[in-house]
Amino acid sequence: MMSATRPAEHELGGDMNVFNRVEPIAASDEFIRQAVEQADLPSLMVTLAMVTGDASLIAPEVKPPVPPMRVEIAQQGGMSKEMQVKARRLATAALIAFRDSGQLGCATPSDALLTQCMQYLLPRDIDELRPLLEHEMGFTKDPGAPDWTRESVAPGVKFRVAVIGAGVSGIAAGYRLQQTELDFTMFEKNEDVGGVWWENRYPGCRLDTPNFAYSLSFAQKQDWPQQFSRQPEIQSYLATVASASGLKRHIRFGTEVDAMRFNEDRATWTLTIRDQSGGVTQEEFNAVITAVGILSRPSLPDIAGLDTFKGRIVHSAVWPEDLDLAGKRVALVGTGASAFQIGPSIVDQVAGLKIFQRSPPWMLPTPTYHDDIAPGMQWLLKHVPYYGRWLRFWQFCISIEGRFPLTAVEDDWVHPVSVGRDNEELRQGCLKWLATQYHDRPDLLEKMTPNYPPTSKRMLRDNGVWAAMLKKPHVELNTTGIDQFTPEGIRTQDGVLHDFDVVICATGFKASDFLAPMTITGAGGRELHRDCWDGDCRAYLGISVPGFPNLFMTGGPNTAVVINGSAIFSSECQVEYSLRAIRYLLETGQKAMNCKEAPFLDYNVWVDAGNLKRSWGSPRARSWYKNAKGRASQPWPFGMLDYWNLTGKFTPEDYVFIQ
Ligand code: NAP
């Protein structure tokens, strides 16, 4: 076998070093001391230990205790005030010495030091986590990069891959495909990359997962302005990855794949592609990676009279650029993550705001949700090599387990709302937060108190702006239930008519209609949605479906991480698995691989059982995590390490191969 020689990034027309630049430190001692005052200390201590090689910076007396992510995340990893003072003193001295030494940072620490650094941040044995952790760090190499190219495993063989979608997952797929030098084309229905981050432009749209962890392992941006950045920042990050990596030349924008059909004689897929002008063409590929997301098809409420409303109706995910809400009477239907960001952002423009709530969301107390990253911290991120990477790693470590234990269903726990002892602890913490928010408004407190288990649907980050909005005199929280839309507005179930100029439907997405509205016809002429899924989507590892050879999904059934980890991590796992599979095909000279029924069925039994042991699978739960048949078809019910291990190697025994 030939060894892989991969072209450098600049040869591919890009420069990913844009994410790795640091500036030399020329600041005074006092400036450095002040900057360190605003630092995230646990990640700074490991960074400095790594760049200086001085392990005393991560000695036990400055080690953060176990990061308790229960209701809230303990600041500075739970370090005591005295510990923080000591850590700051050590860090300041180390930084000054680093400045004076000519700043020759060491990116390749000894194995022993690296292990010490990881153990400093993680409270557990790191052995089983180590490959996953190294994948996420990527200091000097990119561990997720394929260690092969097409030419190295199958010289001269033609193998063409289609990627559908150029959001986060599509970019991950394209980036890795580019590294293999396979021939590939990406199809994107929008005019730019970004997927949901391109589409969702409603006022206030921003992340609710900490930003450093919500980034691609191979493109670790250091200069996020906030811990939870706004939509334009994330969209711009994704656009930068696409251009810096040279990926854009592979993407056909404004192009939608309507259908795909498996050709049994050639073991290929023919895609039916529609461009912006409506022109339809067909193209043939050896494999297809879908990266269309699950929150991309807006869902309008199924309420009578919607089309009779004479004012303007908008969905949160299709926000018109010309929408002027100044002085308007506005209805906001829904109180999920989108509504929670829209309401407080528009409240001061509108003449009146009525919010129609079907069920109140559980809120995660996050007082710093909208805060900028402090200037001192920004300076450190810009000047201390690898600090952004360690901060991302630290956020990632915290989220590996995250609040996952708080979602467990305990069979011996009998309670009208919560599903287990830990879940009850979370409920109590959230109730306390609610009580502080609405202590002066018992009417709102009652309406805002959920009667279903916390975490059984997406919890929302709250820093108090929702309560402040609800208490404004021109705002009403209506929980009566909508009876129907009328030409003037909304009639509630108590018969009251509410007149509006604009209705905003923040009513979510058709999340369980995976891959819709594409028509996907596999082996034997079976259509995926009609003949196979029938409204209850399933896949092996969330990636493969029997009867649909060489079709690889990202963000497929039961892969959504809903309480711990980041969706980007899962996508990268799926992409890397798919490329391992393609490599196997190329190496063995086979045309296609078809998932066997037995592993597919066994896997789904296991996943279903797992979901029943989680709050979101309990009969009391109702959210987009479940499909119309009541099965939790979206969430991944286990830990991140489990998914990493499952997708970390390709097992040919699970597939039948087509020569
Ligand atoms: P969602 O979570 O599905 O919320 C939809 C809301 O509309 C719910 O409050 C729902 O009530 C309500 N609703 C739906 N149909 C209704 C009807 N017929 N009558 C009255 N109310 C109705 O949708 P989303 O807020 O757009 O968020 C979807 C997901 O996108 C989130 O869970 C999250 O994963 C993601 N997201 C993330 C961010 C971020 O910050 N990163 C921002 C926005 C969205 P019920 O609860 O009673 O069903």
Structural commentary:
By secondary structure, the protein is α/β, with parallel strands linked by helices. It has 19 helices and 21 strands. The protein starts with 28 loop residues before the first helix and ends with a strand. Mean pLDDT is 94; it is low at 1-13. The strands form six sheets. Strands 3-2-1-7-19 form a five-stranded parallel beta sheet, covered by helices on one side. It has a five-stranded parallel beta sheet with strand order 8-17-9-10-13, with no helix packed on it. The chain has a four-stranded mixed beta sheet with strand order 6-5-4-18, with no helix packed on it. The chain folds into three domains: 25-102 and 109-143 and 372-401, no CATH class; 155-297 and 511-658, 3-Layer(bba) Sandwich (FAD/NAD(P)-binding domain); 306-362 and 404-505, FAD/NAD(P)-binding domain, CATH 3.50.50.60. The longest helix is centred in the last third of the chain and has 22 residues, at 567-588. The chain binds NADP nicotinamide-adenine-dinucleotide phosphate.
